[in-house]
Design a protein that fits this description.
Elements lengths: L2 H18 L7 E3 L5 E3 L2 H11 L5 E2 L8 H41 L4 H23 L7 E9 L3 E8 L5 E8 H6 L3 H13 L8 E6 L3 E7 L6 H8 L4 H20 L12 E3 L5 E3 L2 H7 L5 H14 L5 H4 L8 H16 L10 H5 L6 H16 L9 H9 L15 H10 L9 H5 L63 E2 L8
Parallel strand pairs: 1-3
Antiparallel strand pairs: 1-2, 4-5, 5-6, 6-8, 7-8, 7-11, 9-10
Helix pairs in contact: 3-4, 6-9, 8-14, 14-16
Length: 509
């Protein structure tokens, strides 16, 4: 058919359509419920000029829909948006990888056969990547070996992937508790940081997924336990051993800061030891307030409750905190240390004063926390430890009156100066470069720390050895996760986009 014949046909159809509806006396508007209503005169006039007198338009409104229908429609919209956003982002990343490969091959002075080989290799990897993206990860893909940790809202389990036999640490978090305690932003920050990070100083995330009850983070298993367990076992480190661990912690914290995050809860519990004896940072959800440890208001409420329970106490009695602790009190603190780590209260021993004061803070707060760990490594206990968290909080707020180095502990001038330079007010605290250049770290090979033999290497009997985890303190926990409260479908939308799968260059993670 010629272009002129097509135009005549369209004109004829338009004319017939107009003629067939010209008898309509008024313009009508169809609502979603199927009822027709008259439009306003002004609207009719303007529409007539644009569309013609026979134009029928629909008024889009959800007024006649039930609340259930509206919520379902909203849920569908959000899920579709999330699905296509992820698909588009993946396509952009894939195109970027292809462009980068082509650019690299064009710049390289290699034969065409080698270029074709590289392209075939790239296509194979991309095919495997797409296959991994289509694979749905479920809880049934993993077999529980042992529970190795327990927190306020979930557990950490040693699991083995059924199809590959690889071993992981699986962190579970209860969705209902996350919603109740308003921790969505925190668990999202943990997931995003772990997914984004490729640093050897940060624990690696391989998968994240969810079901109606729990969120799951499948991470690498670090069989050496944590620094808290080592401190409880050895009590005090030498300055040489402390120097090694502090140097690795500095690089780990720097890696987190470079990603644009603040850990905010640096403590020995969150510093893990890999199979080679080197350190990695973990528990970024806890660091942003998963426990109440980073909630300054929480400890203020504790003090207020103390006052309410005993009105006769005056301010002098409330603030009567011992400068030092007896050996018996220190032993009690150490005995309760693990229990506090498992509780919703947590331990405030390592948190910077500006976090409690709620006046705003930056990445400087992480260096205070590392200074407190430094102190514990060489002294044997945390600098502001007390028999209850509220006294610890008060000591930290008034730290100039309570930062005390015991006379029986002999430290080098460099060590004490560095601790004091890290545990000071935020505006006077040393930054990462100043810490690295401090005389205490004189001669440190910062670029090759991970290749230096560490002072302790875990002696492991198998890939599932949990000798360095205090599993006996956890009691007899069931292998199956307990059935907890399920969140509604509308609230479950808050966890959209939580799923993640790490592509490891063709190897099954």
């Amino acid at each position: 058919m010629s272009q002129r014949q097509s135009e005549e046909t369209v004109s004829s159809v338009s004319s017939n359509t107009s003629g067939g509806s010209s008898t309509q006396s008024t313009q009508l508007s169809a609502s979603p419920s199927g009822q027709q209503r008259s439009s306003s005169p002004a609207s009719t006039s303007s529409t007539s000029k644009r569309k013609g007198d026979d134009y029928v338009y629909f008024e889009r409104s959800t007024d006649s829909f039930s609340s259930d229908a509206v919520s379902r429609a909203t849920a569908a919209k959000l899920k579709l948006e999330s699905f296509y956003k992820l698909a588009v982002d993946a396509a952009i990343e894939r195109n970027g990888r292809r462009t980068e490969l082509e650019h690299r091959l064009n710049q390289a002075m290699i034969p065409n056969e080698s270029k074709e080989r590289e392209i075939r290799k790239y296509r194979k990897l991309e095919s495997q990547h797409l296959r991994l993206r289509r694979t749905k990860i479920r809880l049934t893909d993993f077999r529980t070996i042992k529970v190795i940790g327990k927190g306020a809202f979930g557990e950490v389990r040693l699991v083995q992937k059924v199809d590959t036999g690889k071993v992981y640490a699986m962190k579970t978090l209860q969705k209902a508790e996350m919603l109740k305690r308003d921790q969505l932003a925190h668990i999202r920050a943990e997931r995003d940081l772990l997914a984004e990070s490729t640093s050897p100083w940060v624990v690696q995330l391989f998968y994240s997924f969810q079901d109606p009850l729990y969120l799951y983070l499948i991470m690498e298993f670090l069989p050496g336990g944590d620094l808290m367990t080592m401190l409880m076992k050895y009590d005090v480190f030498s300055e040489d051993v402390t120097r090694f661990y502090m140097a690795e912690c500095i690089l780990a914290i720097e890696a987190v800061h470079d990603l644009g995050y603040i850990h905010r809860d640096i403590k020995p519990d969150n510093i893990l030891i890999d199979k080679n004896g080197h350190l990695k940072l973990s528990d970024f959800g806890l660091s942003t307030g998963l426990h109440k440890t980073t909630d300054g208001d929480f400890y203020k409420r504790l003090i207020d409750q103390d006052k309410q329970r005993d009105p006769a106490r005056n301010s002098v009695q409330v603030n009567a905190i011992h400068l030092t602790m007896s050996r018996e009190q220190i032993a009690t603190w150490k005995a309760n240390r693990r229990k506090l780590a498992y509780s919703t209260v947590g331990t405030p021993d390592y948190i910077a004063p500006e976090v409690f004061m709620l006046k705003g803070y930056g990445k400087e707060c992480d260096w205070w926390s590392l200074g407190a760990i430094f102190f514990e490594c060489v002294v044997g206990y945390a600098p502001f430890c007390s028999e209850n968290p509220s006294d610890t909080y008060k000591k930290i707020i008034e730290w100039p009156n309570y930062l005390y180095f015991p006379e029986e502990v002999h430290l080098s001038q460099e060590a004490e100066h560095l601790i004091r330079s890290m545990m000071t007010w935020a505006n006077s605290r040393l930054g990462v470069n100043e810490i690295k250049n401090h005389p205490f770290f004189y001669g440190a090979d910062w670029d090759n720390l991970r290749y230096i033999a560490p002072p302790f290497v875990p002696a492991l009997s198998s890939i599932t050895d949990t000798t360095y985890f205090p599993t006996d303190e956890l009691g007899n926990l069931p292998e199956q996760l307990e059935v907890v409260e399920q969140v509604g479908s509308d609230k479950d939308l808050a966890f959209l986009g939580f799923t993640f799968k790490r592509f490891t260059g063709g190897q099954a993670p």
